[in-house]
């Protein structure tokens, strides 16, 4: 199996400590997410061989479409995994925007479809649908988007939540952007199985991730489909395990208990099943954060969404990634604090180990074929 690695753009700001908030909760880093800094992060991801960078979506961060569109010009090969939230935009407009982005970036768009699990945030955007309706709408939304990408004739669809009439794109995207999609609740599974190209899940112990992937695989079979699978998780990788855990300890030591209380109270209101599972991993207990070998739940004390990190030596982190790959994970969407420095720790420490094992190859080397040069002194006879 060839593994793909992606990095993360913290469009709310970065820090040497954990940035508190997210997923409906206000957050900002002491290293502002200026365009200059995001360009640095994109360059670091590209040079270290990451395939793409993920951007978040929500009221707590910058707009994903506008931000990534500004970064296309300063990168050459890096792809952008742009977060898209159905229900806040017309599916026809979303399909058109994706086509425009794909053409101007020369095929460097991936889409991360986020249904939305925080009711207060959804209402702030004018969406008062309940959870079941949001997932049903996401399915209809993706049906329209994918149909428009493939249709050569006007397309009409009348669903319970989405209605378009005689819709047609003047320029369809080529290639069609892959759809990344995550969701741990019952209504999410059928949507993922029918429309996703890659199903994403947050970093739980390997056995729990394996069970979730088996669930989606079974649903995908019913639709005659086979999906890829991805893991969204943080990393703290160093030359030795002692150094890595010292960094984790320092991150915890820098947390204000008031931030833990504020964020945990906010996240407890989430309707996201994935968020509930993240909270259960640590239970708010700062003394029991290593929940599996090298799997640390400290990030989730103050950050919504992906709340775990792989912590250890480069060799240990590589081994844990291989364990996830054995249950079916082929895409790893990673991040760390600060994101700029951690991209180099992982890129220079872990990726070479995986390359030596034949599990990964730098994208530039993957595209460059060997050149055959005739021996200059060879006779023509």
What does this molecule look like?
This protein is of the alpha/beta class and 381 residues long. It has a domain at 4-233 and 328-347 and 357-362: Alpha-Beta Barrel (TIM Barrel), CATH 3.20.20.30. Helices cover 41% and strands 17% of the residues. It has helices spanning 35-47, 64-71, 91-104, 119-124, 131-150, 188-195, 206-222, 241-253, 257-267, 273-282, 314-326, 339-349, 351-356, 363-367; strands spanning 4-8, 52-54, 79-84, 109-113, 155-158, 163-167, 179-182, 198-202, 228-238, 290-292, 295-296, 309-313, 331-335. Strands 1-2-3-4-7-8-9-13 form an 8-stranded parallel β-barrel, surrounded by 8 helices. Strands 5-6 form a two-stranded antiparallel ribbon. Strand 2 (52-54), helix 2 and strand 3 form a beta-alpha-beta unit. The longest helix is centred in the middle third of the chain and has 20 residues, at 131-150. The N and C termini lie far apart (46 Å). Residues 371-381 have low confidence and may be disordered.
What is the mean predicted local confidence, pLDDT? 91
In the predicted model, the low-confidence regions spanning at least 5 consecutive residues are 371-381
Broad structural category: alpha/beta
In total, how many beta strands? Answer: 13
* CATH H level, superfamily name of the domain at 4-233 and 328-347 and 357-362: Luciferase-like domain
Largest sheet: 8 strands, parallel, barrel
- Compressed to H and E, one letter per element, the order equals EHEHEHEHHEEEHEHEHHHEEEHEHHH
Looking at the structure, the CATH topology of the domain at 4-233 and 328-347 and 357-362 is TIM Barrel
């Amino acid at each position: 199996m060839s593994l793909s690695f992606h990095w993360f753009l913290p469009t709310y700001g970065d820090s040497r400590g954990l940035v508190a908030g997210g997923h409906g909760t206000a957050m900002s880093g002491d290293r502002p997410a200026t365009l200059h800094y995001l360009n640095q992060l994109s360059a670091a991801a590209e040079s270290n061989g990451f395939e793409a960078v993920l951007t978040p979506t929500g009221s707590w961060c910058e707009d994903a479409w506008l931000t990534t569109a500004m970064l296309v010009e300063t990168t050459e090969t890096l792809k952008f995994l742009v977060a898209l939230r159905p229900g806040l935009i017309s599916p026809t407009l979303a399909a058109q925007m994706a086509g425009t982005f794909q053409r101007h970036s020369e095929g460097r768009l991936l889409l991360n479809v986020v249904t939305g699990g925080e009711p207060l945030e959804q209402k702030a955007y004018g969406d008062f649908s309940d959870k079941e309706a949001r997932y049903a709408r996401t399915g209809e939304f993706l049906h329209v988007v994918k149909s428009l990408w493939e249709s050569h004739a006007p397309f009409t669809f009348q669903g319970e939540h989405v209605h378009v009439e005689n819709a047609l794109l003047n320029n369809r995207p080529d290639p069609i952007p892959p759809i990344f999609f995550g969701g741990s609740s019952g209504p999410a599974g059928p949507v993922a199985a029918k429309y996703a190209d890659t199903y994403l899940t947050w970093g739980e112990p390997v056995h729990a991730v394996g069970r979730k992937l088996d669930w989606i695989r079974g649903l995908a079979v019913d639709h005659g489909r086979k999906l890829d699978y991805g893991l969204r998780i943080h990393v703290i990788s160093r030359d030795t395990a002692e150094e890595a855990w010292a960094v984790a300890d320092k991150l915890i030591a820098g947390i204000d208990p008031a931030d833990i209380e504020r964020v945990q109270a906010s996240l407890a209101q989430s309707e996201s099943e994935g968020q509930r599972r993240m909270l259960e991993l640590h239970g708010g207990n700062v003394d029991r954060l290593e929940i599996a070998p090298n799997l640390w739940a400290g990030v989730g004390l103050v950050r919504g969404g992906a709340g775990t990190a792989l912590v250890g030596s480069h060799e240990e982190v590589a081994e844990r990634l291989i364990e996830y790959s054995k249950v079916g994970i082929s895409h790893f969407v990673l991040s760390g604090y600060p994101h700029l420095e951690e991209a180099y720790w992982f890129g220079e420490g872990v990726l070479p180990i995986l390359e030596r094992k034949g599990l990964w190859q730098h994208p530039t080397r993957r595209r460059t074929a060997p050149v055959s040069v005739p021996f200059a002194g060879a006779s023509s006879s």
